[in-house]
Amino acid sequence: MALECLIGIKFDDFVLIATDMSHIQSIMVQKSDDDKIHKLSSHLVMAVAGEAGDTTQFAEYIAKNIQLYKMRNGYELHPSSAVHFTRHTLSTHLRSREPYFVNLLMGGYNPAINKSELYYMDYLAASVPVNYYAFGYGGMFTLSIMDQDYHSNMTREAGYELLKKCIGEVKRRFIINLPKFRVRIISKEGISDMPTIIAEGEAA
User: Fold this and answer.
1) In this structure, what DSSP letter does residue 3 have?
2) Could you tell me if 82 and 108 are in contact, meaning their C-beta atoms sit under 8 angstroms apart?
3) The domain containing residue 88 runs over which residues?
4) Where do runs of H (alpha helix) occur along the chain?
5) CATH number of the structural domain spanning residue 16
6) What pLDDT is stored for residue 149 in this prediction?
7) Which phi-psi region, left, alpha or beta, contains residue 125 (left: φ > 0; alpha: ψ -120 to 50)?
8) Which residues of the chain have pLDDT under 70?
9) Does any domain span residue 145?
10) Within 13 Å and on the Cβ side, how many CA atoms surround 1?
11) Which of 3, 6, 18, 79 has the fewest CB atoms inside 10 Å of its own CB, making it the most exposed?
């Protein structure tokens, strides 16, 4: 659903993923504490937006299969390999009678080569590695900010401030109220939560 907002930014040593926490159905907000960031492995997350039932079912299916791979082989899939598996699953269902209508960001860190990775994938299973991306109408207001202010060598604090700037712009410019954003960081230490961003700013 384009009313949702997913933001991902890749830096040299880590990836930041932020998602709004609102579960919107038609004209109603049904939840204000929704978690749209799903942990797939110790160094990989997937932020999912789309049809309510599809997002949960698809995320759980991918997460369980990645965990099954680790149990069978004794090691985890690297982020790029997990992306290929996810894309294959999405494209296979696209050609069936039960397609998944989901758009997602996959962010992770590959400890084997000390590299952070971020991928965008749409419901047609088109996948692109990116330095930053924003899904939904919020992307119309935030991509230009990241074009201007993004640097791959930014610190965690600077990256977090860049996210706050983007979310503040969404608050000012977007007619839909998305007051809170959940933020997670993925680095060589693993996955951890950062403080929730409360959108600030008055409408223009």
Assistant:
1) T
2) yes
3) 6-198
4) 52-73, 79-94, 139-149, 156-173
5) 3.60.20.10
6) 96
7) left
8) 1, 199-204
9) yes
10) 17
11) 3
Longest dimension (CA), the chain: 54
Looking at the structure of the chain, the number of domains it has is: 1
For tokens 């960031």, name the residue. 37
Please give the pLDDT value at position 201: 53
User: 183 and 194 in contact (C-beta within 8 Å)?
Assistant: yes
**Cβ neighbours of residue 77 under 8 Å, at least 6 residues apart?**
41, 44, 66, 69, 70, 85
Stated pTM of the model: 0.90
* pLDDT recorded at residue 178: 85
Beta bridge partners of 190: 187
Residue 100 lies in a domain: yes
Q: For position 204, what pLDDT does the model report?
A: 39
CA distance 116 to 110: 6
Task: Tell me if 204 is assigned to some domain.
Answer: no
* Amino acid 30: pLDDT: 78
